[in-house]
């Protein structure tokens, strides 16, 4: 059985076709331009695979995930130009009469890591996935389910204790200025140093500021969710950064509760090359396929 | 059928006996002294009610809630003198051979509010309950279940953006100094003003500092859990304070996501006189009774 996956990011869409073992058979990258052009290219791509039985779509947001809401399947009020109020799921459903699972990009990634933990015989019952890239987002899988009744989690927009020496940086979030995203997303490197993050050496103190903020996010996730694992993906994240995050976590958390070995607790994704969401989408497509077909029988 | 409830707080234990409608038949307050003396008085109280079929215990913490852990049922490393490493549940089980549900004080309160919402035909599928009193704690009910695999939530110990004018207040938490508890628990009023919170008029700017911190907690709860309701109980909380919290929430959140009418979203408990935990305990006792008796049949 074949499944489709769309990981819809602000820079590119990753479309893929995979099998029941969540292995990728084919994939393509589509640059994120206008909704019309981008979604049209997605449709063209999947029309080449008429045997696809279900699809998983993990999109940047905020999106509407409440099934009983008239805007279910839409990207809602996004700061991304042209994309507010886009009927993403509806557009795909117009062309493909198959079951589709609809969630956020980070929920898709979180689910991919959850499924991979089971496949690898190291099952994690509860995990939190953060992406630190152009923006900051978070997904949560708890006992195999996503959290949220009023919508999906958006843990990138919490306020934090400001780092020493960073008090005068205003923060870049258009909604909140100095929330986590406004203080720690990729573009903050350009704003603070005039250089891209990838060009700033790890010895630069700006990475300690970054780690101080990300460690607070990990502490929040710990205290709210008590997960078995916190995973950090996205372009800003590296093992060197996570070493700094673990150090700051230890100092700030002060062993208040046991979280086990920090090397296992705070990690990069198990699926390589930012592929977690594609795995998650295949698994969610399969889940949705069985859900809709059991109802019909 | 009769049920027992213990709400174990740092100042007093509230023991109660109730029926299947979660109505209190009898109750007593026991001052929290040493574990031996306090638990002995609990045992003596419940021995007067041999017809009790199950018990719910909601305790201050941190406590061990993982059933497969050897310390399950213990109060673990608490800053409260004499109470670290207390086998609370085991002591009760020694005297009463009945099903017992064991959770945190704030989970008990959260569950009581959840059950009451159903009883009142205004069901809430997901809610977060904070207590702001001698300490700050949080409980979460999501789709009828508590959150947490590595343990119970402890949202009182997150870091926050510091309030203007409050930068030099060090914070009172013995573990973290300026976490939510260290900045907003009852004793911070004594430390900042030399007066008890109840003696500080609501017009005093210290209440704006308090509201700024509590609003950030509400935003965190919103972004992690996307609950239908956030409830604040405990001695520090009043409707006047929550009005200030709603104002600060609006300013800080900047309508990033829809949470509905703030008057309904951020509220005091529905159960009066801090009785939420007792209702929750009765309901959890009933749940545990059916769980253990179905297994035996």
TrEMBL record, chains A, B:
Q: Does the keyword Electron transport apply?
A: no
Q: Which domain of life is it from?
A: Bacteria
What InterPro entries has UniProt attached to this entry?
ATPase_NBD (IPR043129), Carb_Metab_Reg_Kinase/Isom (IPR051804), ROK (IPR000600), ScrK (IPR054618)
Q: List the GO molecular function terms.
A: ATP binding; fructokinase activity; metal ion binding
**Per the record's keyword annotation, is Kinase included, yes or no?**
yes
State the family it belongs to: Belongs to the ROK (NagC/XylR) family.
The protein depicted here goes by the name: Fructokinase
Originating species: Apilactobacillus ozensis DSM 23829 = JCM 17196
């Amino acid at each position: 059985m074949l499944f489709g996956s769309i990981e819809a990011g602000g820079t590119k869409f990753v479309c893929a076709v995979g099998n029941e073992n969540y292995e990728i058979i084919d994939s393509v990258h589509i640059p994120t331009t206008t909704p019309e052009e981008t979604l049209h290219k997605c449709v063209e791509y999947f029309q080449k695979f008429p045997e696809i039985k279900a699809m998983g779509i993990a999109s940047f947001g905020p999106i509407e995930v409440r099934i009983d809401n008239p805007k279910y399947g839409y990207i809602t009020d996004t700061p991304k130009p042209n994309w507010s109020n886009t009927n993403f799921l509806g557009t795909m459903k117009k062309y493909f009469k198959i079951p589709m699972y609809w969630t956020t990009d980070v929920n898709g990634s979180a689910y991919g890591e959850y499924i991979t933990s089971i496949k690898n015989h190291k099952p994690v019952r509860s995990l939190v996935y953060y992406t630190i890239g152009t923006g900051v987002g978070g997904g949560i899988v708890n006992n195999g389910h996503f959290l949220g009744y009023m919508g999906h989690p958006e843990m990138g927009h919490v306020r934090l204790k400001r780092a020493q020496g960073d008090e005068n940086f205003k923060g870049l979030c258009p909604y909140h200025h100095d929330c986590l995203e406004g203080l720690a997303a990729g573009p903050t490197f350009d704003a603070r140093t005039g250089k891209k993050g990838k060009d700033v050496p790890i010895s630069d103190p700006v990475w300690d500021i970054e780690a101080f903020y990300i460690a607070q996010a990990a502490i929040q996730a710990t205290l709210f969710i008590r997960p078995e694992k916190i995973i950090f993906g996205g372009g800003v994240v590296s093992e060197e950064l996570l070493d700094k995050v673990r150090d700051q976590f230890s100092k700030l958390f002060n062993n208040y509760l046991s979280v086990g070995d920090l090397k296992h607790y705070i990690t990069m994704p198990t699926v390589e090359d930012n592929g977690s969401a594609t795995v998650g989408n295949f698994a969610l497509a399969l889940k949705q396929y069985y859900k809709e077909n059991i109802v019909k029988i």
